[in-house]
Fold each of these.
Amino acid sequence: MKDKSPEFYFTKEEMVKDLLAITPIKPEDVVLDAGSGNLVWFKNLPCLPENRRECEIERGCDFYEWKEEVDWVVGNPPFRDKNGKNQIPSWIEKASTIARKGFAFLINHKVFNCLTPRRLEKLKERGFYLQHIRIVSDKRWFGRYYYLIWGKENKNFVSWELKSY
């Protein structure tokens, strides 16, 4: 299989800014960009610079080994590991163990099959509820993508974005 160029996977900065703008991160919050890749999420985190954290396996920091609690975990996680296994359920699981306030990930439609009642109940037991879904598209990617925001308030709703990035 031919390798794709790095920009194929990275989120455009305009989309990152729009998604972070709807995430209820406060300037004093400590925020982890869990798969920082090209640092576009990290550079645009709406918190104080000293409260930004980043984790990127290519730079020696494995998200699954992250120990520090943070207020928020955000980003566009890799959908598959090197063996082709879907990583999103594991990312949601890990984020729910280290986030104090919430986590938000940009994912594809396949994640909805991972949101089983059992997994949702486990998240509820940890105090996390799906609070917002923003539907977006990018001309470079196939289909729609979903930015899911999980937080501590028990409320659910969906929003969408008409423009294409």
Note: The two ends are 27 Å apart (CA to CA).
Amino acid sequence: MATHALKLLVGVALLTTLVACQGKTSKTSAAPEAAHGDKMMSGEEAHDQMAMGDPMFSGTFQKGEHDAAGTFEIDKHEGVTMLHLSEDFATNANAPDLYLAIGNTANPIADKALPYPLDEGEYVTVAELTSATGAQEYEIPGDIDLSEDNSVIIWCKQFNATMSYAPLQAAAPMN
């Protein structure tokens, strides 16, 4: 976590330097911009995209024990694999002990009854969920081989209940 904070601080310092340099060299734009294809992005958008890295997987959350909303994206940047939950992500806010897990099947609730328990060996826990709603990001440990896994799971550890899941889909390359 300290490494992530340090990288964030270095990124902010670099971005601040770039913004200051851009302001001195460009008299036509009040905000720095970077070209991406035919679209122009502000400096902040360009920084966010750089921080996101190369997209590897994405998916949309589906109902497990409870309704779900939102999407995720997994990317790799400078050797670190990160999972990002979308701003509209939501799961049951009343559920205790929520965790983010990676499952080895695309549909971890298939052929199971409520509360859709996970069996040992069907998943790897990534981290405790910091919130039941909103944008969040989590570092995926390097020993997790995503080529052998097939879903992102929101799991209630206390009751062994799959709250929601999202099958991994290969992310389309950005041009």
Note: The longest strand covers residues 54-60.
